[in-house]
Amino acid sequence: MPDTAPDSSSLLESEDDGELALPYWLTSTKEAADTTFLTMLRRLPRLLRDGWLLAWHASRRTTMAVLILQSAAGLASALGLISVVGVFDGLLQAGPTPERVRAAVPSLVLLILTLAARGLLSSAATAAHGRLTPLVFEAAEMRLLDLTTGVDLATFDDPEWRDAMQRARDRGIYAAQRIVDFGIEVLTNLIGLIAAGGVLAVLHPVLLPMLVLAAVPTGWAAVRAARLGYRMRLRLIAVWRRQNMLAELLAAREPAGELRAFTVRRFLLAEVARLLRISTVEEIKVVTRSVRSNLFGQALSGLLTGGAYLVLLWLLWTGRMELAAGGAAAYAINIGIGKLRELAFSVNRVYEQGLYFSDFQGFCDLSRQRAEPSPERCAPTRFSEITLDSVTFSYPDATRPAVDDVSLTLRRGEIIALVGENGSGKSTLAAVLAGLYRPQHGTVTWDGVDVSRLHPDSLRDRVAVVMQEPTRWPLSARLNIAIGRHDRPATLEQVQESARAGDAHSFVMELPREYETLLSRHFTDGADLSGGQWQRLAVSRAFHRDAPLLICDEPTANLDARAEHDVYQRLRSLAAGRSVVLITHRMASVREADRIYVLDHGSVIEEGDHDSLMAAGGLYAQLFTLQASAYQSA
Ligand SMILES: Nc1ncnc2c1ncn2[C@@H]1O[C@H](COP(=O)(O)OP(=O)(O)OP(=O)(O)O)[C@@H](O)[C@H]1O
């Protein structure tokens, strides 16, 4: 049957209402987009300062070089302008022509020298600027990644923070880099403008306000265009995210099979096309409005520039200004208007990038607030007992706790099992035990010490986790295991030993380059593994970590029966002297656990060993009997 192309509206468009409306958490950003021209001017010094601080942090030497060279180049142009005035002055004074030319020569020589100096300084400044730009990008990217990985795990479940991260990543880093670039432009144009303005003010004070007036409409139009663009991006961010996610899924290897099996290709293509259309229509609308305001601004600026020249003519006509000064003033007006316009554009660019840069800064501030506390004290190398006392943990925005008032104890060398139906809170409880989530109520103690008083890294150093969906690192098979203890160099023999423990050795040896095979199809020579093989690799990684607490969150979900049996045999031998927390839906695997905790809606509803729980005839006995009878009847 061919792919059918049903109207995607049937399933997906129900979410459309208000697709372009701003979500509530974007209101602060909306405020930024609503700022007026004056507010923008007020914000400018802070934006420039923060941009320069980032550059300073990236490289002091290069920042200093850019600042000094740009200022010197700007001063050279200012000197050039003043020397042009001198040339006019000389040429237009009364007297015979040779006299006048002679009078103009010193200023002409100065003009040539300043032009040469400006050329040299500008080239040097461009070179320094070229060095600074990638350095700022590097510093901004590293700052973002450092803060992103430094927040506590629960923050990743907070949609507000995730969206802030997306905005910071999407344009914030780029904006951080650009704000420095445009800051340099502002500096250069400002120096040029001060020179032109200074000359004009000396020639006749009335010319200066005329000059400023002429540039205002262009500046206004540029700011308006920036605001329109920013607000559009703000409105479209949710649409873009959905479109990107779908586009990535359509182009990725993993869902390619399911995409075809369910013949959803055309259905999803229609949804991507619908989202693209929304953003295209919006973008065209905004471009039209921006062009209209630009046209208006340019026309008005043109009129006001004409007005400035008329004032100049009037000054000459009424004898309020000498002819020589008039020539110089006309030249200075021309230069000044150009500089003012460029300044308006560069200020506007700073403002425009400033809007995105504030996303970057906002995310950095937010992440600093959410950074994990890091007390000095280290966790004990080998603990005797971990205790959870009335622990409650809720995910951000969740209406009910995922772990609700749970108390349990885990001693060294014990295997405890967490069982329960989907969503009962097993993985969350295991993550609390591993110190990955900090409970809102109750305490987790290691040998009587509250974990909130221990350095989180030292705690995690004592824990090895096999996640439900282990990370498929795009590294070699060897590194995929050795990364479990990346801080301790491991020989190939040691890695192989861990691989044998996790039952991964035999299939790794069958890979094209054995342990050196890159495990990612995205690279040439890369290989991919099956779900079960990845899981065995994850078990090997956990064995390699060699930690006193091993948490296995459904380590055998993708394993075949023989591999599962082998892994549990090894787990038991490994448990000697270590503690194991086992989460599984395969009831047969938990029979031999020292204690079994049965969870329901985040609470422990039963606890004990297999025999006592079976005798109690509760949920555990029901689940166990159900599975056992399924096997018997199979
Ligand atoms: N990252 C998250 N953000 C918000 N809620 C979450 C998150 N992870 C889990 N939950 C919710 O917390 C509850 C407990 O989930 P948890 O994954 O701990 O259950 P589980 O018993 O391990 O489930 P399963 O057997 O399906 O793996 C569920 O209601 C789930 O929807």
Ligand identities: adenosine-5'-triphosphate
Strand percentage, roughly?
Answer: 5-15%
- Biggest sheet architecture: 6 strands, mixed
Outline: elongated
CATH domain class name of the largest domain: Mainly Alpha
Structural class: alpha/beta
Number of domains: 3
**Rg for CA atoms:** 35 Å
Tell me, rounded to a whole number, the average pLDDT. Answer: 82
The portion of residues assigned to helices is: 55-70%
DSSP summary, beta strand count: 10
- The CATH architecture term of the largest domain is Up-down Bundle
Number of helices: 19
CATH topology annotation of the largest domain: ABC transporter transmembrane region fold
Ranges with pLDDT <50 over ≥5 residues? 1-18, 22-28
Distance between the termini: 34 Å
Keywords:
alpha/beta; 19 helices; 4-stranded antiparallel sheet; single chain; 63% helix; Rossmann fold; 634 residues; 10 strands; transmembrane helix; ABC transporter transmembrane region fold; binds adenosine-5'-triphosphate
